[in-house]
Structures are given as structure tokens and as C-alpha cells.
Design goal:
By secondary structure, the chain is of the alpha/beta class. The protein has a single domain (3-9, 16-126), classed as Nucleotidyltransferase, domain 5. The protein is built from 3 helices and 7 strands, in the order ββββαβαββα. Helix 1 (61-73) packs across helix 2. The longest helix has 13 residues, at 61-73. It is globular, with a radius of gyration of 15 Å. The two termini are 15 Å apart.
Length: 134
């Protein structure tokens, strides 16, 4: 049986859904014109593919923290649950600050060449190693 962490939730995730895996990512876009780069930060619940939260703005620590805080407030999470991200420098610090040992955290970093992934590295940065082996 899973332990759960409960947070107040607007209406993003249904009460029956317990989040076991979450992905955080950012998407580069242009708004309102191509000369102005903008980032859309997203949290994605893996099972349902629901986006519990998005934040639009600069690629910064503040927006990374805002995304994860909003996501936490909108769901019920298995403990520990898995969070995966790319190699963006602020994810690890924000996850450790807001969740600590309540989650497992891993990063997947990709090397691209000619619009193709040529190499990927993954690693565990926080959490309980026993859960990762399962």
C-alpha cells in the first residue's frame, strides 16, 4: 500500500489519482515575436499525461520553484514518488528544497548532434536507492 502526501488541490488532478511519477520540462517558444524568446515550464503527470501546472517566463530559479510549488499544491503524491527532469541547472536544487526525501529524483541529459540524440546520461540525485531498484 502506498503512503501519500496530500496537498490542497484546485481541480487539476482528481482525488482518485495518486501521482507516482512526474516529469518537469521547459519548452522554448517565441512570444510575441521571434526576437523575444520565452519559456513554458511544464509539469507532466506520466500516467494520465495531465499537465498539472505551467509557468511562462524566463528560464530562472524563480520560475522553476513556482512550477514545482503549484504542482505540489494540485495533487496527491505517493511517497516516495519519482520526478525526472532534463539537465537544467535549477531543477535539482528546487526539488531538494521543496521535497527532500519525499521523492526520488533523477536527471536525463542528452547530447544532440545534427538534430539527433547521440548520447544520453541518466542518474539518481536524491531519494531512496531501494525504491529505484524495484
Amino acid at each position: 500500500m502506498l503512503e501519500t502526501l496530500s496537498f490542497s488541490r484546485p481541480s487539476s488532478l482528481s482525488a482518485a489519482d495518486v501521482v507516482e511519477e512526474l516529469q518537469l520540462d521547459e519548452i522554448r517558444t517565441f512570444a510575441p515575436r521571434k526576437s523575444e524568446v520565452c519559456w513554458v515550464f511544464t509539469s507532466i503527470e506520466v500516467t494520465s499525461r495531465l499537465w498539472p501546472s505551467t509557468v511562462v517566463g524566463r528560464r530562472s530559479y524563480r520560475n522553476t520553484e513556482k512550477l514545482l510549488r503549484e504542482t505540489i499544491q494540485r495533487g496527491e503524491f505517493a511517497t516516495p514518488f519519482l520526478i525526472t527532469t532534463d539537465g537544467f541547472k535549477y531543477y535539482k536544487r528546487v526539488v531538494q528544497q521543496l521535497l527532500g526525501p519525499a521523492c526520488l529524483y533523477g536527471q536525463v541529459q542528452k547530447m544532440w548532434r545534427n538534430n539527433r540524440v547521440v548520447f544520453a546520461v541518466s542518474g539518481r540525485d536524491a531519494g531512496r536507492p531501494v525504491r529505484l531498484a524495484a
